[in-house]
Amino acid sequence: MPLNSTSKTSPPPFELMERVCKRPWEAYLPPIKMADNVWYISGNDWVAAYLIDTGDGLILIDTAMQESLYLLVENVHKLGYQMSDIKKILLSHAHIDHIGAARALKELTGAEMYLGKRDLLFIHERKDLIMAGDYCCGDIEPDTLYDDNTPITLGNISIRTVSTPGHTPGCTSFFFDITDKNGQKLTCAMHGGVGLNITKKDFEQTGLPPTLRDEYIASLKSLDKESVDITLPSHTNQVGILLLVDQITDDFNPFIEPSIWHELMNERLERTMEIVRREEMEK
To answer: Which of 15, 86, 116, 203 has the fewest Cβ atoms within 10 Å of its own Cβ atom?
Structure first.
């Protein structure tokens, strides 16, 4: 799978968000099968949401934007499910592009909602850190806070959460195993947020502690030690999944590529260290 991280030629996030929110039909994507019983489901080609069939109900990871929610709902129905089949909603971090539709989905499904404890700051006191532009984001209150020592289990799926602060203080990553139709065990993983909002200027503007950058660096190094068969990007411009959709067949999954996880962790680490070096030179 090609690594397709954001480059200088990629549209900035606010342009991508504007397209998804104001012209969502232009960004529509049907469900993408990432693995047996695992789908990219968000309905847009920028920010991810993943649906997992556990055999005893569905788990949804992230919700994408409120303005594109109708396309996520359409995709759930296209797969033959009902919204009431969603039993758990796992939020990776409290930014609007990942939790924008969380309030509506909570009301539609009645699902148990999870969030990282340190992101309670965002939803309770610093809602300005959630928002980006004049878009809808209903108030939310998680039912459960992640505990890295307690996996999230439903049906035949057990999701291990790992606190990975940096992109936000409560950013959380997810690891789970699936067994494909051939009996092969595969590990799927999603880093909760690899966005590089970690310069000194960023911290000064937000009031968040600059120690988050050290935590981010440490988490990248730690997660690089994980073995992952299928990397689930939180945004499609992190890993080139859209370039491989046409290769999917009943007998071939192009997303199985263990090297991609390590490439993503190391690419983000290198970019972060370049920021650190540049700031040191500017002192």
So the answer is: 15
